[in-house]
Amino acid sequence: MADRAQHMAKSTGADPSKELRRRLGRWLKKRREDQALTQADLANLLGLRYYSFVSQVENGLGRIPQDLYEAWAKALDLPVQDFAWTVLAHLEPGLYRLLRDQPPPSPEDPVT
Amino acid sequence: MANIIGFDPHDTASAQGAGWTVRERAELTELRFAMDAQLPALEWDDGTTDTGDPWMVAIDMRTDDLALHVARIGRDYVLLDGQLAPMAAGRSLKGVLETAAEAARAAGLMPQDSARPGRAGQATPALMGQGPEGMPVAMGSEAAPRQATPPALLAADARAETDAPAQRNSDAHHATIADAEEGHAAVSVLEHEPEAERMAAPISAALVTRPDADTEPAQSAPSLSTAPDPGPLLRAAADAVERAPMGEAADRPVPPQPSAEVLVLPIQARALDGAELRLGEARGQILSFREALERGSQDRAPASDTTDNPAAPEAGPDTAPPFEVESFVARVTLFGIPALGQTGGTSGVAWLDLLARFDTGAEASPEIEAFVFESALNRPDDEGEELWFDPGAAQTTAAENLDPLDEPVLIGARGGDLSDSLLIEDSLALFG
């Protein structure tokens, strides 16, 4: 079992980009819950017909459409720019580094 | 946190709030496998909303963009494209998925002949059987088009016997069997482990998928009885199907029939270490999954006594009939699925089969064995190499953050007369 550790690492899903997305999802979920919003509530505020997309994003899957950034930020009572930077830091950390000339915020504290 | 999912493959409405049902998963898996064959960059995941409505998504890993989103919201199914635009909606998942499949075919994302798996002429792999010395074996089909072979189960209590000579892993046996009661054909494939000299032990279960009842009436499917020389495994498959008609599990009275040799259930779970098992009123716990894996590395270890284990659940007056895990054996078996081998040189899907032995602790109750099949979460780099996943990582993951498996987890029980004291419910808790 020479490559057991490698297999284990792979099988446990240690993909950095995925982990960033999951962290973003958890952060979004927490912010939503802090606002006492259900996923359906948030979907209504975002104008989404089907609220399961909110659950999907909060599970770290897919991207938030850019045209929803502003509404999503407002729904979570966050400054739009901060929200956008946070999303960018987790979905496009390389681009974030280039634009801000600084590393993305720590995954443990994604709020900028 | 217990996560109990009832086995109710036919009643979607009753499963609201409990994630995808078995039948839904089977239908979703059909779509998934068909699309995976054409778009190997797709990654699938699923989950439930905060109110329990299930969803499944396909993510294009090249761009990390959403490619497809399927959800059941209330009693309605909806399918969204990558821009969250509804592609189809309705009360029938099959209808919604058909719409998606047609759109995918029209867009060239699926072959024109990628009909629903389970149709006549297409094969579906059996998920488990029983090899020599009673060892459960993972089974698959090589001859069948892999993109159309979803590992889904819609029947239970199947049992078939054969003494067919062993054949290579690439050999497949499948049958299209008329199911007069349901008015459609059922397809079953049985295959046995390549190491076995002979398949002398009974085949304990057969996978049966539900083909499109609307377009594939039984009359159009060749009946096994008219098929030329179907062979022993094919006959065994037919026998298994006949003994496990669609829907029987859903209609099974409580307690189940004592003749039930195999009870197969689905569940979504990732954490197994410390998992709680419930067999009727009896409860037990998998005590050491890591140890099981260590044993698994030596293939199958002999049963051992865990009475010295202080963590073993004790028999209590309120937990009759009690049982405890006597031994736990795990191993990983691979079988190739070429359709999934297009990504990064991967060559197959890993199936983890776990064998747990339970002792009811009552003289009148013979020992039974339960075994769990779970699709592993990864794919091998090297064909034939054993795979491992880290049970410790699963252990440290909060239950609410656990991702549901892509495939159903199956648990079966076999052994002596199960009717005396052990009620096996159609549910299983894997989260302690």
Explain what this protein looks like in three dimensions.
The complex is a heterodimer of chains A (about 110) and B (about 425). By secondary structure, chain A is mostly helical. In chain A, about 60% of the residues lie in helices and about 0% in strands. Chain A has helices at about 5-10, 15-35, 40-45, 50-60, 70-75, 80-90, 95-100. The termini of chain A are far apart. Residues about 1-15 of chain A have low confidence and may be disordered. Chain B is α+β, with helices and mostly antiparallel strands and about 425 residues long. Chain B is built from 6 helices and 15 strands. In chain B, the strands form 5 sheets. Chain B has a 5-stranded antiparallel β-sheet with strand order 1-2-3-4-5. A 4-stranded antiparallel β-sheet of chain B has the order 12-13-14-15. In chain B, strand 6 (about 130) and strand 7 form a beta hairpin. In chain B, helix 1 (about 20-40) runs parallel beside helix 2 (about 95-105). Chain B is globular. The chains are: A mainly alpha (about 110), B alpha+beta (about 425). The interface of A and B includes residues 10, 22 and 49 of A.
List keywords for this structure.
heterodimer, A: 112 residues, mainly alpha, B: 432 residues, alpha+beta, five-stranded antiparallel beta sheet, four-stranded antiparallel beta sheet, 6 helices, 14% helix, 23% strand, disordered C terminus
Q: What radius of gyration of chain A results from the CA coordinates? A: 16 Å
Helix content of chain A: 55-70%
Mean pLDDT, all residues of chain B:
41
Number of helix segments of chain B?
Answer: 6
Report the β-strand fraction of chain A as a percent range. under 5%
Strand order of the largest sheet of chain B: 1-2-3-4-5
Spell the H/E element sequence of chain B.
Answer: HEEEEEHEEEEHHEEHEEEHE
Report how far the terminal alpha carbons of chain A are from each other: 43 Å
Q: What general outline of chain A do the C-alpha atoms trace?
A: globular
Contiguous low-pLDDT stretches of chain B (5 residues minimum) are 1-17, 114-432
The biggest beta sheet of chain B reads: 5 strands, antiparallel
Number of H/I helices of chain A: 7
| Helical amount of chain B | 10-25%
Structural class of chain A: mainly alpha
The residue-averaged pLDDT of chain A reads 80
Name the chain pair whose interface involves the most residues.
A-B, 32 and 38 residues
